[in-house]
Amino acid sequence: AGAETLKRAVELDVASRFQESLVCYQEGIDLLLQVVKGTGRGSPWGRGRSRAHAGRERKLLAFFSDGKYHKQIRIEENATGFGYEKLFHEYLTEIVSEVWVEDPYIRHIHQASRYLLYNFLRFCEMLVKGPCKVKTIHLLTSYDEGSGRNQQMSGLEEIQQSLRNYGVTLNIEFSSSIHDREIRFNNGWMIKIGRGLDYFKKPQGRFSIGYCDFDLRPCHETTVDVFHTKHTKKM
């Protein structure tokens, strides 16, 4: 577990995602130190393992896999069961009132393999349903290119108006230099999805299973990294 976490730290470091890589370095080193301490003379890890020792090892490995500093979820190609509610529910506590979404590709549905405006709408629906009491959503994205810009603006304005009917304010900003995909909640949780909100595959048809229920929709392969701000440091 420690080696895998350090490997992930190097990947993030190379990608210039320094805050997250620092957290993974911290966790990986901590995990390795835990193992070193447990393999000393007289330790059950250094002798033949009894059932009790094996059970203790399983518990320790379970603690490692959860991560002291961060949690990582690997979504395999064509996997199902990763709808937004399943992925985010444990972080959307009742105190969450403000959400930040940074994704450069919240654009119109004309793109052949992307339904990103619909994906963002589904994400907003999840926030409205609770149990959190979201009042403000901040979206930072990039402009659609060419003729799709008008449709992008029209779609976002419609979502904005609809959210207003539920007492939620959607603030929209555009940046031509945004690359990272990140979702933050004001309770301190930060979720980074390799593909942003666009990790679902295009449905086979409008009347196919998975078109409405994202838990049944096959996914693209991606990695989800979850951090808490108490373990991150400004570089």
UniProtKB/TrEMBL annotation:
PANTHER family: MIT DOMAIN-CONTAINING PROTEIN 1 (PTHR21222). GO terms for biological process: midbody abscission. One of its GO terms (cellular component) is midbody. It holds the Pfam family MIT_C. Residues 81-228 form the MITD1 C-terminal phospholipase D-like domain. Gene3D superfamilies: MITD, C-terminal phospholipase D-like domain, Phosphotransferase system, lactose/cellobiose-type IIA subunit. This is MITD1 protein.
